[in-house]
Amino acid sequence: MVDPALQEKKFRMLGFQTFLAGTIGYSLYYVCRTSLNVVKKPILDSGMLDASQLGLIGSVLLFAYAIGKFINGFLADHCNIKRFMATGLLVSAVANFCLGILGFASSALPTMAVFVMFAIMWGINGWSQSMGAPPAIIGLSRWLPLSKRGTFYGFFSLSHNLGEWLSFLFVGILVSVAGWQWGFIGSSIAGALGVDLHGHEIAGLHGMRSLEGAHTVCRVVAELHAETVGILRLAVLALVHIRIPEGTAVDHILRGIQHDQIHLILPVGSGIEDALPAQN
Q: Across residues 50-71, what is the average pLDDT?
């Protein structure tokens, strides 16, 4: 038989592990999302795209992201959340990598072709970005108790700021040293690291259903036990203080309990045994 203390310890460890993986993973989502903000000025300086084209490209991401959140939020409820979140980050990383390669090849392509391909890839990035938050929040709700979800969600919300900080620091350094194309490639590397993180840090999610099921069953049984004890105690108290007509079935049961002819299995210290009539 599994030691309940060890099971509880493992459950808490996997819950904290899932929280860390979700927070770090979603921060790397933001690195892949905000890469364009870092490289906008170098792109404008290069003359590859103008400000209006970059504005349209940015709006494509927001539009795809908004629609994707509706659909992917629903899909995440019915999918393996580890694979779902890792897939979205992988697609985002690939989109960033393709944009970096497109930047190197832009001199050999017409400006309109570069603009269209840029918008398509950034729209794909926007859709994949919507696959990050739903599984992370589902993971938090599955693993953390109600009394701690607000606290952990507050820390999880810092992933937005952490991702933006990493993007402007890490991607900004790459852009200043190697050129704006490497800003997208650097973001794709960060996304690939996040995919690998999800493959290792929350590997326990495969066994989550059984472990969480056991934990949930124990919790529900305890709650039902407490409610049942309370109901029984009220019922016995009512029967004791109500005048029961002699000769009725209830009267025979209470008399049997009084004379130890009917045995009830009562939780020790529950208060029910104190509510019964004193035995002779």
A: 93
